[in-house]
Amino acid sequence: MYIPKKYGQSKVDSCPFCNKQATTTNKEGFPVCIAHKDALFDDMKCVCGKPLESRTGKYGKFFLCEDCGPISVKKVLEFNPIKKLEPKSSSAYEDHRPSEKPKEFIVRSDDPRFFS
To answer: Does some domain include residue 94?
Structure first.
């Protein structure tokens, strides 16, 4: 049975730091969520122990090892665990709850604000 793809569901990137949906890229070019926009990957090492260099190619981001060659981001993240970073609290993304209760007012049927 053939089930057609729906628009927007064929490729959904997730943030490697918190696994939310990635909507932007960081300075290195990796897809991340808005909360981790300034987060960078630390020293990524290959299985052989050499440092990895991040590159961008035809099919997206990948890492390059001097000895092993190109390695996908998924494989690199498997053997280089990333600390789950807590997003920095920003006034734009904080939960703004008023410290005092909202004022309660009574609306009557003859009140002009009731019919506007």
So the answer is: no
